[in-house]
Give the backbone structure.
Amino acid sequence: MRFRPADHPARERRAEERARRLLRNAAGQEALEMYERFGFLSVEDAERGYGYLIYPQRPIVGYDARNGELLSEYCVRFRDRSEREAGERLPDADDVLAKWMALRADERGLLGTANVHPLGRQLDPEMVRRDLEALRQWQRC
Amino acid sequence: MKLLRMTPGHGDVLIAEGDPAVAEDEERLVREFRRQLDLGMWAAVPHEGAAGRREATMVRDFSEIPPQAERVIFFPKAAGG
């Protein structure tokens, strides 16, 4: 029988709390605040002029950091099939941290494994634009 | 040094801990490190980079882990979604 998170809400909540602690320890307090406030992380390379929004269990979105233009969806998954009863998905905060570490450490390698689609395949472009604008405002404060 | 593995339903799990400067600990850490990679995991070391920016480095061999690293995080290999 396939595991669904709703089957074990208390366990999933504990796992997410634990994953958030790891996110803070690995990516820093600001990353945790961003994740808790917006539900995603961003990685931006100002020198190269682009960045990524990292959503849990959803595609990574590339964007032009100079003008906010959204570029592509990069679909990657981190599935663990070692414990059937626990399901395959990492907790959301672990999923974004895994993407964050892989992007930081080996951007080309991670994106090379991704299925690349125009924006809108899985994520609503208007939602992503609002997310990016909200992030910008928060970062300016 | 702690070796942690992200897991569904649990979050990170401590799979080994020890001082790499102690031969017995190092042997155990190396063994567990290799086992996780054999299971198909990726390994990353989070660290502080220039100007305090948080960074991460992927490691494919125990010898690549910086000596001052506090933790190595294992997570499943990425696949196209």
Chain B has a mean pLDDT of 95. The helical segments of chain B are 23-38. The first strand of chain B starts at residue 2 and ends at 7.
